[in-house]
């Protein structure tokens, strides 16, 4: 709904490539970026754990850094809540497993100990014993007998009926959605006391009167329990359920409020504190309104019981928090492009009648994550669009952001091998390493801010949705890509101080685009599949069209070495002219609503895949393994103390996943 989860690599790709409000990035075009930073922390089972950096941290003032720090501490203080929400025995199980892990003195070189470590890693990653994505209870590979010896040797006591759950059939699924079952009764998730049925829960919430115009999110912040035979909500609040953790959160939120950047932020934080003190859902709405309309400042946050996916009947919000800072680099670029949007329009290769006389840049928002907790960690969304309450969205608006450094980390992790595999020569690899990531970001900015904004429809012609039908998306995405590509090789970018070496940026961008469009993006398809997704299609039809049109002049040469195919760009200036030509044609198709031409372009160049090349690409890619699911450790923000006050911060990257998980349990283990 409003939360874009990176559930799997394939789904991540799908989300990134779907345009409009969802996060979109051309960083996927250069999936094979390389940076010095080591993104990979560890892998186990079907999981890969990565690290991320916090770009822009140094540009924050000390006061802003304090705000970020306090907000991350507030977020982490609620970590135990998600564990308990996910399953009523999760905290007891985690405590037992961690005790065994840290105190067991026996042989740790056995296969069974390795299996125990893997299981603990999986539990940490899922915030409980059910898989974060499939929702199935994860089965330990080690035996029940082995576990009993571990508990005995480490002198650890876990209640019998609790540890037995690891091995028996009880509570097998966190969220049951099977229509033939009683989904509340059979789901293991801890939003409803055991024994409560779907009908009972629904009847309970239906009986609560709500304001039809401005309904609160009923049931959002409570556990439904039975007291003396009567159903009632046990509310998450100070002095109530999860009160110990919530009090810690309030402490940090108050400190954050004291260093808020703007009066609106200060007000929003005040309301959030009152909400946690009272548990009042009306207060939550007041907060959501204040938060939605607080759009100034370099720091922002998400904090609360928010998404309802973990509740089979979608009332209960899972605890989550994300702390974000402005993407300063991207914002600067966007502003420069926006201010010069008319120059780009006037100097583009569009036909005069298709140019806009007055063009305004499109706004686009990326932020960088500084810390996550609860349901947003270790598995994280890549974009967020909140608040969820529909009437607030309609009346007061919403905020939609894509998480830039998270997306970049996904794109960069473990990809150096792919670059070397598919790049034609050393110079191409070198330029990609030096300029690829930045050129890619600039392409995204050009695509979004001036690309989508440019051009106009001829009088009397319908919207592209009406005239181009199912080809509308891929034509529009290709048009925006081409607008960016045309200008990526332009000295104007240097004049505007967007780059320091326009030719190298342009060269890296063109190499990357062609390499991806004709070869490396095929790794996302299974053999025999057509290209379906709009952005993948446009990358292929753009690349294949310029390759074919430039064949006579050898603009792009197809090279086959030892049975492996490469594309080597021979003439960058001519390639730029071809991008310009195709941009003009794509705009003509859009302006005139020429369905037949759109269909011919897409079907002839963007849909079918050369089966021999595809087989070869999949084969060459098979040595690079990517785990099915990925998530992150958080950078650790460490205050430097000057007496009682904070004089600065250092950012430390955790060396291992387990070190961060154990530290979190120790430092933020407020519930039991
Ligand atoms: Zn787009």
UniProtKB/TrEMBL annotation:
Q: Which GO terms describe its molecular function?
A: hydrolase activity; metal ion binding
Establish whether keyword Metal-binding is in the entry.
yes
Keyword Cytoplasm tagged: no
**Coiled coil (UniProt feature):** none
Which superkingdom heads the taxonomic lineage of this protein's source? Answer: Bacteria
Alphabetically list the UniProt keywords.
Hydrolase, Metal-binding
The protein's name is: Dihydrofolate reductase
Q: Whose protein is this, by species?
A: Nonlabens dokdonensis
